[in-house]
Amino acid sequence: MDAAFVLALHQVATTQTWFGAIVLVVAQTGIFVLPIALLSIWFVAPTPNDGRREAVVAGIASSIVAFAVGLVLERILSRPRPFVELGFVPLFPHAPDSSFPSDHTLVGVALVGPMLWRSPKLGIWLLVWALLVGFARVAAGVHYPTDILGSAILALALDALVWVSTRPVRRRLNLQRWDARQLRSPRGARRR
User: What CATH number is given to the structural domain containing 59?
Assistant: First the structure.
């Protein structure tokens, strides 16, 4: 079923020019939307202690851990990429290394996962985007659907682990002091 899904999506991406163009852009550059979105969330948070800044910090820590885990797993596991195993040309050049885990999905979901706990409505949209990037890579022929789903599940597990283990550090960061509005207000002004 994995192979059939890849072949079907890849066929649509190669025969429908408009779909192929969207897949190409999302698969190669869509991941950059996530850190830009988190940076925007950091600066537009209505109050510094609403929890979203804490989720951004935890997401950054989770994505670093996920990147390291991904490096280890891709050396241990050796799942051929769809374009290698099924014998077709992917939409963009790619190394024939291990298909699992999907680095884009693993790091992307790890980056936005903590937002699911602090701002679920926002977190769901970010998670959906991270999964769309992953499935665009399926349509491009460089991953199987189970690579994307497995990477997302692994990333959420890493998010939970990092969320629990970094709680004392996140509390010490005192994210309220990073609020520019507070620094400009009379209460936040420094005494001379």
Answer: 1.20.144.10
This prediction has a pTM of 0.87
Gyration radius (Cα) of the chain, Å? 19
Query: What is the C-alpha separation between 140 and 126, in angstroms, rounded?
Result: 21
User: Within a domain: residue 180?
Assistant: no
- Is 136 inside a domain boundary? yes
Q: How far apart are CA 114 and CA 42, in angstroms?
A: 14
In this model, does residue 33 exceed pLDDT 60? Answer: yes
Cβ atoms 135, 76 nearer than 8 A:
no
Residues 6+ apart with CB under 8 A from 187: none
How many other C-beta atoms can be found within 10 angstroms of the C-beta atom of residue 167? 12
66 to 61, 90, 101, 110: CA distances (angstroms) = 9, 25, 10, 7
Task: Identify the pLDDT of residue 47.
Answer: 67
Tally of domains within the chain: 1
Report whether pLDDT(170) > 80: no
49 backbone dihedrals φ, ψ, rounded to 5°? -110, 25
Q: Where are the alpha helices (DSSP H) in 45-144?
A: 52-76, 82-85, 103-112, 115-118, 120-139
Alpha-carbon gap, residue 155 to 108, rounded angstroms: 8
